[in-house]
Amino acid sequence: MTDLKSLTYPQLEEFMKELGQPAYRTGQVFGWLHQKGVTSFDQMTNLPAALRQTLAEKSFLNSLTVERKLVSKKDGTVKYLFGLRDGECVESVLMDYHHGHSLCISTQVGCRQGCRFCASTLGGLVRNLTPAEMLDEIYTATADSGHRIDSVVLMGIGEPLDNYDNVMAFLELLSDPRGLNLSLRHVSLSTCGLVDRIYDLAEKKLGLTLSISLHGSNDTVRSASMPINNKWNIDALLKACRDYFDTTGRRVSFEYALIEGKNDSPEQARELAALLKGMLCHVNLIPVNPVVERGNRRSSRQAVERFQKTLQSCGVNATVRRELGTDINAACGQLRRTHAQSSTQESEETP
Ligand code: SAH
């Protein structure tokens, strides 16, 4: 069975050609899938019944279910737990910014990168998401909330560059003028630092914002919390970031989660500033979200402010990320995990 919604326009064209269909049918089907968001072949009313029948025999339409939905009383942030066709779950977070709605989406079920502060990686990688599943996070959140999604961030569960081919197909579909037509200027992709893929991504010149999860100002600290640093250290990572900027002209963004006593001292802020010297970039500071299994403590507000001021005094652009949805466990990976744990308990209780 072909996963119809995962096919890029040229792939769908090929598929329709194999069915002996004229070229204009591709445009019709693509529009139904990616502009009108149909959930069944019967809704494709301008297709002959026989074609709808053939499509239903040879392909399927992916869809997600809303397993849980948490709405923040503080700021309206919505966290979705979406159910996938095989019973797995992923999370998306819908945030209301002054300039529009932004959706943070997952790219994998679980993650194999093993970052020690992160909830998403605790159970390892289960599988990659398909392009259709990533698109459906957007389509389902739009349909459920009634809000148009103005920007998308690939910062939910998973490492997007570890699911490279599907993420590239997803981006092609997302920005296709015959589909949702979202400019990739409104997309950010966050990575823990898969250096070989950063070079590949730069070559594509997609115009998206590359966001790097740095979280340490030297290799000792970074390797202690991010295993990927043992494969590609800070030097190799920053070299790839400079190349990304030189090739694409797009400023790189760095994520830095402040963990009390581990990476939040003024000396470390100066060390970070020295690393980024001369780079056109931006640092996002986030007090770490404590994950029960991880035992990390978030830095105090004073420590966060001091870190930011030190960076700024060294000429590095730094902001403290406004935290949204703190009352609904909005940080990635936590809802899927508690959901998995509660269903295990439920099944344990059932004789
Ligand atoms: N794998 C990608 C994207 C998913 S994680 C990446 O590593 O960038 C999205 C962001 O949340 C990353 O910057 C990640 O380091 C950060 N993050 C993960 N767990 C966190 C926590 N407990 N507190 C604060 N930020 C966290």
Describe the structure.
It is a single chain. The strands form three sheets. The protein has a ten-stranded mixed sheet with strand order 3-4-5-6-9-10-11-12-13-14. A two-stranded parallel ribbon has the order 1-2. It is built from eleven helices and 14 strands. The protein is α/β, with parallel strands linked by helices and 351 residues long. Residues 344-351 have low confidence and may be disordered. Helix 10 (301-313) links the parallel strand 13 and strand 14 (318-320). The radius of gyration is 21 Å and the shape is globular. It folds into two domains: 2-60, DNA polymerase, domain 1 (Orthogonal Bundle); 65-347, Aldolase class I (TIM Barrel, Alpha-Beta Barrel), CATH 3.20.20.70. It has helices at 9-18, 24-34, 49-58, 131-145, 164-175, 195-204, 219-225, 234-248, 266-276, 301-313, 334-349, and strands spanning 2-3, 59-60, 65-71, 78-83, 89-97, 100-104, 108-110, 125-128, 151-154, 187-191, 209-213, 252-258, 281-287, 318-320. The site of S-adenosyl-L-homocysteine (SAH) has 17 residues, from strand 10 and strand 12.
